[in-house]
Amino acid sequence: MRLTLAQEQTVSELGKHLYHFLPGQPHPFADQAISFLGAAKAVGVGQFWPGGSKQPATVALLRNTLEKKAEHFCDLINEIVRKSLVYRQNKNEPLTREDIQRLNDLVLKLGFKIPELRNSRFLDGLPSVNKIAPVTTLSESKRSALLVQLRKLSALAPQPRGYAFEEFLKDLFSLSGLAAREAFKLLGEQIDGSFQLQGETYLLEATWRNKSVGEEELLSFSGKVSGKAAWSRGVHVSYAGFTPDGLEAFAKGKRTAIVCMDGLCLNDTLAHGLDLATVIERKVRRAAETNEAFVRVRDLFPEVK
Fold first, then answer.
1. C-alpha–C-alpha distance, residues 163 and 210, integer Å
2. Is the pTM for the entire model greater than 0.90?
3. 137 pLDDT exceeds 80?
4. By the 8 A CB rule, do 35 and 26 touch?
5. Rounded mean pLDDT, 122-145
6. pLDDT in tens, 185-213
7. Distance between CA 40 and CA 18 in Å, rounded?
8. How far apart are CA 86 and CA 80, in angstroms?
9. CATH numbers and ranges of domains, the chain
10. 190-197 and 200-207: which strand pairing?
11. How does residue 163 score in pLDDT terms, banded at 50, 70 and 90?
12. How far is CA 285 from each of CA 97, 114, 129, 280, rounded to the nearest angstrom?
């Protein structure tokens, strides 16, 4: 059967979601079965794997299986997950509960349900990115002190607020194990610096004034980041947040290499005992998936209210 336009769209989303589950064709010295080609062969649809670039090949495999051997589709998805559990564990990047839940949602949109992938014992046995990670470097007393320090900023006049915000960020990043390679420096209405996280270099820009940051400033900082080495990333912290129009316009441009935090994100991070490094990593992952530079902490950690 020929897929509808809605099904084509879902198959494309599914191919994108599955991209990191397995290699297309493994290294010659690796287990040949641990691949999309190996999964396809295992359920009798190996002829539908066209080779070439992995994402379009994965989409083609899914589409051809649905159109020509739909009765093998659930078996194919199940086998991909089975092999991915081994592959991702060996990479120290295990599949998460959220990975499988998103997969189940897309499979359901195509009109299928795979009971094994919906089994509660299976899902409960997977790690979850939505479990709040406890702070390991901040003591309770220091976390509380930082939270008070942050909440007092709004009562300060502009110039002293800038210096107070600079000191707050220095303490927060240092005590969170993200000591800056370059000191955070107050320049006009912004604080510049850099830090490292998981081997990646991040440029930091923090804006402390009352006015929300708009598209022009987002583009300016994004330009600074893209003007550095190709692997550079950026974190923009705006005490007063970001304008909705600015974020919407910025999202329509090229892919983002920056993520954003506002005062509420900082407050939620401290008030709920979250690790700053974990918060930034979660924001980076969401940006990679959606190209959204700004997602609130409470939207990334559902248990935060």
1. 14
2. no
3. no
4. yes
5. 74
6. 888 778 888 888 876 788 899 988 888 99
7. 14
8. 10
9. 5-124 (no CATH), 140-300 (3.40.91)
10. antiparallel
11. confident
12. 15, 27, 10, 9
Q: Which percentage of the chain shows pLDDT scores above 90?
A: 48
How far apart are the C-alpha atoms of 236 and 223, rounded to whole Å?
A: 12
Identity of the amino acid at 93: E
pLDDT at 132 over 60: no
Q: What is the pLDDT of residue 229?
A: 65
Give the tens place of pLDDT for each residue, 87-114.
988 888 889 988 998 999 999 999 999 9
Cα dihedral across residues 31, 37, 39, 41: positive or negative = negative
* pLDDT recorded at residue 135: 47
Residues 108-121: what's their mean pLDDT? 92
Query: What gap in Å lies between CA 272 and CA 278, rounded to an integer?
Result: 13
Rounded Cα distance, 206 and 283, in Å: 16
Other CB atoms within a 10 A radius of the CB of residue 152 amount to 12
Neighbours of 102 (CB within 10 A): 15
Q: Are 233 and 202 in contact (CB under 8 A)?
A: yes
**Cα–Cα distances in Å, from 260 out to 75, 137, 190, 221, 277?**
41, 23, 14, 11, 14
Cβ–Cβ < 8 Å for 44, 129: no
Q: Is residue 239 within 8 Å of 153, Cβ to Cβ?
A: yes
